[in-house]
Amino acid sequence: MSDPYARLLALRAQLETYNEQYYVVDAPTVPDAEYDRLMRELVALEQAHPEWRDPDSPSQKVGGAPVSAFPEVRHLLPMLSLDNVFSDEELMAFEKRVLDRLDRSEPLAFCCEPKLDGLAVSLVYEQGRLVQAATRGDGSTGEGITENVRTIKSIPLRLKGDDWPARLEVRGEVFMPKAGFDAMNEAARANGDKVFANPRNAAAGSLRQLDSRITARRPLAFYCYGIGQVEGEPLGECHFDILQRLKGWGLPVSPEVRRMQGKAGCQAYHDDILSRRDRLPYEIDGVVYKVDELALQARLGFVVRAPRWATAHKFPAQEELTRLLNVEFQV
Ligand code: NAD
Description:
Number of helices: 11
Helix content: 25-40%
Low-confidence stretches: 320-331
Radius of gyration: 20 Å
Bound molecules: nicotinamide-adenine-dinucleotide
């Protein structure tokens, strides 16, 4: 298509459709790599033509609209997405942007984490008890899925210890480990039922069930990777240390989380996790780097759909379009 404006409109419409299929119906029809390519093309066009920018563009939005079958939950702090880097050069540019904004020249500490391929949830604990769980939804409003989340064995219903804040919002990823996914699909095949396309869709479809007895039978797991709104004293000065506190209260944190220095440390972490990707018991689609110091995070702030202080370093895609299109999906 030679008319760039027509191309931009076509990309927006196509990405809206893919978002609906992915976030609302849990049934994507294209691999993530294809979606990412189209999104990058759209972002490049919008950057080249600022006059065509539109706050309703898929490039400006997080996730998808919450499904009305679930109660609405307003997030007190928005649940955002993450920006991506795909190469060494882009990682270097990310570090440079961060250092320039902070007016620093020395490498910073980053908290490095696996990028779990599941779906984001917010858990609210009051007086140490789990009282609410919600999906990310469109970032400001999610779906209330408390009963379903209560069936996930690794999520504590009561926190350990007694030094937790009166109200604590924890954020993390619900995912389906590979072994559970394979066993579930094998059983579905044996019964002549439809199989899930990948563990991410299996996790999303399983968590967003109207009957929590179905969720309870699905092999779901959870790792937390951050906090949302917290009442009272700050939990710490660094993201890494906060994750250790969450762990102390019985909340599962990935054993792969590390504090590393600068771009070189991030790259070493990336290379190590990538080399072990196939041996990890769950699927990941990259790693995430977060500026560790909370005071620096606050200075860096956010752009419309993602924090400036973090980025996802995506791995090469594993799925092929042909494979996806040949699989029947189950929600
Ligand atoms: P994202 O995957 O780009 O990044 C943000 C999400 O990463 C968070 O919401 C959280 O759920 C997750 N995450 C995992 N580990 C994390 C960690 N350690 N710290 C923080 N967050 C962590 O998320 P997005 O905004 O939901 O989706 C965009 C991506 O989803 C696209 O790049 C594409 O790959 C995929 N997508 C695919 C289709 C499709 O049709 N195939 C459609 C829409 C989106």
